[in-house]
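ARCHIVE CARD
SHELF: 3
SLOT: left
DATA:
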Amino acid sequence: MKRIILPLFLLLFLVLEGIFPELVPRKLNGSEIYIIPYFVMSFLILMAIFYDYDQTYQSIYYAIVFGFLTDLLYTDLIGVYMFTYGAVAYFVHKFKRVLHANFFVTFILTLFGVSLSDTLIYMMYAVIQITSMAPVEYGMTRLLPTVLANMITMAVLYPLFYRRMWKWSEELMSHRKTV
């Protein structure tokens, strides 16, 4: 049962990513804004920091799988989110080796991860000309609101999951040692 918990939460967040844009206003002070929810990415960052050990890569595996599912469900181009989620989970996994796992570091890595994810996706779409948004417009109307909204998401997810992730990780390691 415990092996199903993380994928179920990731699946829930994947569904919520599809619902969220319908609940958020598209205009702020008369100008159009785009808030892209990265609930799955935020949870994967928590996994990379608090669940994975140096020698385990569960967050990266889940990032690739759920990035692919995001591509299938929400985009027209397969592989963009799969690559981006996998790369960001890998970088966060590597950075956590030199940083202490705490609230501040989690927020910095979330800021880095969400910014990198959204920028990579924008750049890939710009290169293949799916988007025509200018970089300055992208930064003001999409990147900034997206990062702020996802930092709020992390403020909600962090207290709910960081202790549980440690506990689940220790249970997984103790189970592997006994088998």
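SLOT: right
DATA:
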Amino acid sequence: MAPSSPVTGSFGYGVKQASTPRSASRMSRSSNISGDDGKTAVKVAIRVRPPLEPGMPGYELIPQRFQKPVVNVLNAKSLSIDTPQSKKTFIFDRVFGADIDQVGVMDWVLDSVEAFLQGYNVSILAYGQSGAGKSFTMGTAGKSDPELRGQGLSSLS
């Protein structure tokens, strides 16, 4: 029987905003329950996909106001969203820039795969609106590239 406590290496819900929240009720549940060491049962990673360039399939479908990138990776744990009205900074457990490859992401996820093999409950998911980069993140963008297939299964050998 699998242990009931979740592993600390899984992806999930919960975003901590860098600026001070207006009230404690606006903080994510994981922000409220994290201990002094900052560890929670849920880890959140963001992968920023490369922007579509002119001439790429789908580029013409992007409204002109969204053709300029607004997401800036600040470091391995934070990114900013720049709009004409404001700039907001968000902090995550890990931020992967557009230059990271599948192996780089898998290195971070590997702890979760190993915990799963030890019987822990693990969930890894890609969440976002259409065109946000879920398929890119999960490695289904180029099936001909062996690097993009089965990193989790390959780690079992």
